[in-house]
């Protein structure tokens, strides 16, 4: 497994251990880790602190996002996809989109390359979470 996806998965597991939603991300520039993050909506009582948003916040100002890749354990939602498009992140690698289809077509329509790994670890982690805490999951996706 790619070391950056492993970082994203580790972030997701940290979030789960904190009582949050198991979605993690990592931002890579020119092959080097810039920042990682996890969904902290529950932990910080912040409705927009999804994994990708936390990662971007942790990265701070990095100037141009040319040469970056956003890794996420789950296909980004429209909010996170909008941020990816806004900052012209050219590539997103996701662990899975089976449990949540997200905004793949939106990102691709704006020139973002999206790679879905269909990773069994990411799928099983989300399936288990959704089964155990459907109310928290539905809140996260605005249902």
Could you name the key traits of this structure?
alpha/beta, globular
Kindly describe this structure.
The chain has 143 residues and is an alpha/beta fold. Helix content is 44%, strand content 18%. It has seven helices and five strands; from the N terminus they run αββααβαβαβαα. The chain has helices spanning 3-17, 41-44, 51-59, 78-86, 104-109, 120-132, 134-140; strands spanning 24-29, 32-38, 68-72, 91-94, 113-116. A five-stranded mixed sheet has the order 2-1-3-4-5. Helix 6 packs across helix 7.
Q: Rounded to an integer, what's the Rg over CA atoms? A: 14 Å
How big a fraction of the residues is strand? Answer: 15-25%
Q: What's the multimeric state? A: single chain
Helix content: 40-55%
* Succession of helices and strands: HEEHHEHEHEHH
Shape: globular
Largest sheet entry? 5 strands, mixed
Distance between the termini: 33 Å
Category by helix and strand content: alpha/beta
For the largest sheet, list the strands in their spatial order.
2-1-3-4-5
Q: Flag low-confidence runs.
A: none
On the 0-100 scale, what is the average pLDDT? 95
Q: What is the number of helical segments per DSSP (H or I, 4+ residues)? A: 7
Number of strands: 5
Give a quick rundown of the structure.
This protein has helices at residues 3-17, 41-44, 51-59, 78-86, 104-109, 120-132, 134-140, and strands spanning 24-29, 32-38, 68-72, 91-94, 113-116. It has 143 residues and is of the alpha/beta class.
